[in-house]
Every structure is written in structure tokens, then in C-alpha cells.
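The following block was generated as part of the benchmark described in Methods. Ligand: adenosine-5'-diphosphate.
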Amino acid sequence: RLATSIRDLTKEYVLKSETVRALRGVSFDVPEGDYVAIMGPSGSGKSTLLNMLGCLDKPTAGSLCLGDDDISKMTDDQLADIRSQRIGFVFQSYNLIQQLSVVENIQVPLYYQGKLGPKERQRAIELATRVGLGDRLDHRPNQLSGGQQQRVAIARSLVNDPFFVLADEPTGNLDSITTDEILAIFDQLNEEGRTIILVTHEDDVALRAKRIVRLKDGMLHTDEPVAESDREA
Ligand code: ADP
Ligand code: ADP
């Protein structure tokens, strides 16, 4: 796991009659072990930045390096490989496969690489146990609560030992008690050295991070550490 470095990141969408500049020269670094909350008003470029970080789309200009790999120089196939092998995704809507069990869902990113053996199953069981689902291994998503489904998604995001876990409004569908439980898992992962990049519009969620990056009009507005005394526990 290596540092992520973003330099002058620019993304333009060309529509019929105009060019939309969604990101206009954003720069910041995410060192290994950091915990960053990305905030900003609607239309400020958060989704666009997330798509770049998630290797779903390439910048128009500037660079985004995951360790030594500059994604702006990659082919679409290389991007797909990085995406499935080196990035952990956690979504607001969990994105689990209903026909698969907890353990099988956690193994999904490994299927893409043709890794289906007992070693992989064992790793999935260990991750399920770590997120508190050791007694739910064979359950299907519809037999789980929202919080439990999000735990499955978090375990799945870790199965490839990713550069970072990219979480997009991960508690957006959860009540406040379940939100606390899920955020406690992120806290624990971060304490163990995992890098976490989380997009949220909720202040109390962002205050769990070590640092808040705010976008405005496609630019970096502020990039500030969260004071230890302000960090929500
Ligand atoms: P946020 O996630 O902060 O709401 P977005 O990244 O979705 O912001 O959008 C930033 C700007 O880019 C907005 O003006 C939006 O309309 C525009 N935009 C986003 N995606 C596209 C797209 N696929 N095509 C054209 N314009 C887009
Ligand atoms: P494609 O089939 O177009 O190459 P992917 O299969 O890589 O797309 O991704 C499909 C969806 O799954 C995307 O929304 C992507 O963000 C998500 N995704 C990709 N890789 C993973 C992963 N390792 N874990 C969870 N979700 C992923």
C-alpha cells in the first residue's frame, strides 16, 4: 500500500454546446494510513473526483498516481485491472449480489481474477469474522440488516488488500446507531494502518476522519486536519 498523489487534476465533460469543467486543477496527497473525508456542495466535483480515484474514468489533464502508477497514462484495460485488484469500494447501497452468501459476496473481487480456491474462501471467512459476521457466513443479503449488509461490503472491499478503501456515503442509508457501528469499523481499520477515503455530506461522519478536504466549484477549497479534540469517537 502506497501513497496516492493528485496533481493539477482536471476533468472536463464535453457536451454538445459547452464544456463543463468539473475539476479544475485539484492537488493533494493521501499518505498511507490517512483517513480523508471529502466534502463539498452538490456540483462541486465530488463524484467526478471519486470516479478518478476509483479508476472508473481518466482525467482530462493532470495526474493521479497510486504509488508509482499514473492512472492518467493507463489504457482502459489497465484501469479495469487496478480497479478490481487494488481498490476497495463501499457504496451507500451496499451493492451485494442477492444470490450469493456472505462469504461468496466477500470473494466476488477475487472471482474477477479467477481465484476461487480454499485459501480465498478462508480469507473471506476471516474478513467476515473481523466485521462481526462470523455467525452469518451462509446468509443471503436479504436475510441481513442494512448495517450487516454494509459490513459484508466492507469485508469485500478488503479482500484484495487495496491501496485504499473508497467509501461513497457509506452510512447514507443507515440509522444513527448503525452508522456509529459502521464508522467504528472504519476507525478500527484506520488504526490498523488502512487508508480510507470517504465522501460524505454529514459533518459528524466527516469528523471521524483525520482530515477534511472540501471542494468548491471543481477546486480544492480547504484541506484541514481534524483536531484530535474535535474527532468524534
Ligand atoms: P458532486 O458530486 O459534488 O455533486 P459532480 O462531480 O457530480 O459533483 O459534478 C461536477 C460538475 O460536473 C457539475 O457541474 C456536473 O453537472 C458536471 N458533470 C458531472 N458528470 C457529468 C457528465 N457525465 N457529463 C457532463 N457533466 C457532468
Ligand atoms: P466493468 O465490468 O465495466 O469493467 P467493473 O466490474 O470493474 O466494471 O465494476 C462494476 C461496478 O463494480 C462498478 O460500479 C465498480 O465501482 C464496482 N467494483 C469494481 N471493482 C470492485 C471491487 N473490487 N469491489 C466492489 N465493487 C467493485
